[in-house]
Design brief:
- The chain has helices at about 25-45, 50-65, 70-80, 85-100, 140-155, 165-180, 195-200, 210-225, 245-260, 280-290, 310-320, 375-380, 395-400, 440-445, and strands spanning about 10, 15-25, 110, 120-125, 130-135, 155-160, 185-190, 205-210, 230, 235-240, 270-275, 325-330, 345, 365-370, 385, 390, 410-415, 430, 435, 450-455.
- The chain has 14 helices and 20 strands.
- A 7-stranded mixed β-sheet has the order 12-13-14-11-10-16-17.
- With about 450 residues, the chain is an alpha/beta fold.
- The longest helix is centred in the first third of the chain and has 21 residues, at about 25-45.
């Protein structure tokens, strides 16, 4: 029964004594009931028409913009996101809803001539029904939105199970979204693994973002049921720096990609691969930028690196760096009481070390050396993940001749590995992603299935 479940608890990672949420978990039965209500509401939501869906999503965008200061402060407080990043995430969240507000008017299929005879052949995309969304804490508004908005735009209803650490953000987002939607169309279910598994076991399509282990479990559950599933999981992202790059600019980009938001992004840079003569100068420049990087209170506009999300998360980062030669370590706040870890760059990491095969999810990166671009690409590809690689060079030849060999879903040239364009497909290769891409128009394809109609005149 629900009353026997451990409560959902969320604390301020910069001040763990600040308790934001202590609420009962939904339980498997709560999830089943919510999915049933969403399935009942889905037909009315779909057949209400494109204009109604478009107007609702546009209204949500406007409401998010109106509540921007409140939502920014909540993200700072609940997930420790530096206020400058939190403000940008809220702005992007509103833009996501506005972008998908146009989608209900998009064509849902095509008309084709038959191979022989008279009649018409039609294709038409139709919604799956109830979209089950399982989302992480690090982008508490943007990730639920870039999943929910296309699902709703195409006529699905939504059941969202957020990470416990972002429960307050998800509940506030739900209040805004639900004001624009009919009852039962969008539901948030507080909980943890039990509720996540129940969503994957009941919904008609599942979209997941989170850890690799959990994502693989969700994908297996959904696949066994024969329903569509997408899972965005870990990253162990590399930055390749060639000698002809502007090394100071590259180092600034790398420092922000390593330690921005305490490295708690699946697109964060975990490995820096210096090619040839770039090694020495890059080491010095990156060490300087990391040491100067502001670490501290996420409510301070100057802060780039705030706290880790939890005490176990901080412990994982500290333990991963133990015993390794340090190139640079940033200063951390004194007795703040928050879960802070120093942004760190290490070198001479032995083969097989966990930093070369596991995502630690913190402000920690490894400096590696390569003789040439071909070796750098091999090093970049040598891990189980393949989400994003950044490449820093002034050579267009390197772009043309080397980058197609990278086994990652996204490649960013002369830019940090972090950063997402919500109107383009997002996803990786290998253990980073499972199933179709999300965001952009790719999301509209995921949340629908294509039907083929053959229309033959009754009296030819």
């Amino acid at each position: 029964m629900t009353t026997d479940l451990a409560p959902v608890v969320s604390r301020n990672p910069a001040d763990p004594s600040d308790l934001l949420v202590h609420t009962p978990a939904s339980g498997a039965s709560g999830v089943a009931n919510a999915v049933a209500r969403a399935r009942t509401a889905q037909s009315g939501w779909l057949h209400g028409g494109a204009a109604a869906r478009s107007a609702a999503l546009a209204a949500i965008a406007t409401a998010i913009e109106a509540a921007a200061d409140e939502l920014t402060a909540l993200a700072v407080r609940e997930v420790g996101k530096p206020v400058t990043e939190a403000r940008a995430e809220v702005a992007r969240t509103a833009a996501i809803w506005r972008y998908y507000a146009a989608a209900p008017y998009d064509p849902t299929g095509a008309v084709h001539e038959p191979a022989t005879g008279s009649g018409l052949l039609l294709t038409r995309r139709r919604p799956h029904g109830v979209a089950g969304l399982i989302t992480p804490w690090n982008f508490p508004f943007a990730i639920p939105s870039w999943k929910a908005a296309p699902a709703l735009a195409t006529g699905n209803t939504v059941v969202l199970k957020p990470a416990p650490e972002a429960t307050a953000c998800a509940q506030r987002l739900a209040e805004i979204v639900q004001q624009a939607l009919p009852e039962g169309v969008f539901t948030v279910l507080p909980g943890g693994a039990i509720e996540g598994n129940a969503v994957a076991s009941a919904a008609d399509a599942v979209s997941f973002t989170g850890s690799t282990v959990v994502g693989q479990t969700v994908a297996r559950t959904a696949t066994a049921r024969g329903i569509p599933v997408q899972a965005e999981m870990g990253g162990l992202n590399a930055a390749i720096v060639l000698p002809d790059a502007d090394l100071d600019t590259a180092a600034a980009h790398l420092a922000s990609a390593i330690a921005g938001y305490a490295g708690q992004k699946c697109t964060a840079t975990s490995r820096v691969i210096a090619v040839g003569a770039a090694l020495g100068p890059l080491r010095e420049a990156l060490a300087e930028h990391l040491r100067a990087l502001p670490v501290g209170d996420p409510a301070d506009p100057a802060t780039v690196c705030g706290p880790l999300i939890s005490e176990p998360a901080r412990s994982r980062v500290v333990e991963a760096a133990q015993g390794l030669p340090e190139v640079a370590v940033a200063r951390v706040p004194g007795e703040s009481g928050g879960w802070f870890a120093a942004p760190t760059l290490v070198e001479n990491v032995p083969p097989g070390h966990r930093l070369l095969r596991e995502e630690v999810f913190g402000p920690l990166a490894v400096l590696l050396a390569a003789d040439d671009l071909a070796q750098a690409v091999r090093i970049a590809n040598s891990v189980p993940y393949g989400l994003v690689t950044s490449v820093h060079t002034a050579s267009f030849d390197a772009v043309l001749n080397g980058l197609d060999q990278l086994d990652t879903g996204m490649i960013r040239l002369n830019a940090p590995s972090t950063g997402v364009d919500f109107h383009l497909p997002f996803g990786g290769t290998k253990a980073s992603s499972r199933g179709p891409r999300e965001q952009g128009s790719a999301a509209l394809d995921f949340y629908t299935s294509t039907r083929t109609y053959t229309l033959v005149p009754a009296h030819p």
